[in-house]
Amino acid sequence: MKGTFPIDKFSELRTPFYYYDTEVLRQTIATVRQEAARLGNVAVHYAVKANANAGVLSIIREHGLGADCVSGGEIRAALKAGFPASKIVFAGVGKADWEIELGLDADIFCFNVESVPELEVINELAARKGKMANVAFRINPDVGAHTHANITTGLAENKFGISMNDMDDVIDQALQMPHVRFVGLHFHIGSQIVDMGDFVALCNRINELQDRIEARHIRIEHINVGGGLGIDYDHPNRQPVPDFKSYFATYAKNLRLRPHQTLHFEPGRAIVGQCGSLISRVLYVKQGTNKKFAILDAGFTDLIRPALYQAYHKIENLSSDGAMETYDVVGPICESSDVFGKAIDLNSVRRGHFVALRSAGAYGEIMASSYNCRELPKGYLSDEMR
Ligand code: LLP
Fold first, then answer.
1. Closest Cα to atom 1, ligand 1: which residue?
2. Nearest residue CA, atom 6 of ligand 1?
3. Which residues, listed in sequence order, are joined to residue 276 by a DSSP beta bridge?
4. What 3-state DSSP class applies to 364?
5. CATH superfamily for domain 7-17+274-385
6. pTM higher than the cut 0.90
7. What tens digit of pLDDT does each residue of 103-149 get?
């Protein structure tokens, strides 16, 4: 089964471009809100790093979600899209002074702090401005996630967060600093996680840490469990809305939250992944020695995930229902890694056909580059094509 696309409208547009199905996006956010609401005191911050297209951001903001940002640029994009500063969290191992100042000036909700040197700088910059900065500590829970090595983040060997052993000491230091207010703990174990057992492991670890902190009579208002829920790249049409029901239920069942606490989530991929496709035209069909190549006008500059993580994106020929044939689907960039898929079965491909690379709404457009002096791909919402 293929997705549905307004390809008559596509013929007026320069390819490649990203196409966002706003109906899928809206359904996804509605499901997030409905399932998260069952947990009670919950705040969902969309991870802007997954996709900062202005149209996509404004739909997410309209539905009342907050924003999880990892740079000054993302904070600006979130503010511009109308996210209230009171719903913005700011994470990242290397926050520059100007980025911290931007967050302080905007009065964002919270800085997710990853080291003592960073905490000291936030305290100092806040003092200069006569402000108090809310801080949560990102704790490295040493929980592995069953996903690609480049996108696990919660292991002791990763650069992220503060180790559990140092946690008590770091909290003590924060309590001594006059311009930071310690408000919570933050975790994130990785991305594209489909095994709920990984989230159970995180909950168990948080339960232990909470008991330890409580024994010291320190109050924690906010627990932030990050993002990470995966999507079905193999079957984007079968499961356009990820399984948020199981995801939130896993936390409801396994995390021992205290009655005064708010639980925060930072999903990125699961919100925007399935609504987006990279649309490309076939430039040439080339017969190689043993195989046929479908050469697209999109390359890894437009969608880098296959080249960078060996990620699979389902490929569909939108222009033909002809007999299936097997192709290596490649881009025009002068590097052998510019391959979207090998031995892919597609309805017989001709020059000029439209091809969709599915499930590309997350970490697609936002990771595009201009290598080879290529133009960055544009993004269009389905709303604009009616
Ligand atoms: N919170 C924190 C602290 C994060 O580091 C991330 C993602 C998220 C939330 C959102 O995670 P998500 O719900 O999207 O899994 N470029 C890679 C993914 C990198 C994820 C980085 N951190 C890819 O294309 O697969």
1. 226
2. 227
3. 20
4. coil
5. Lyase, Ornithine Decarboxylase; Chain A, domain 1 (2.40.37.10)
6. yes
7. 999 999 999 999 999 999 999 999 999 999 999 999 999 887 666 55
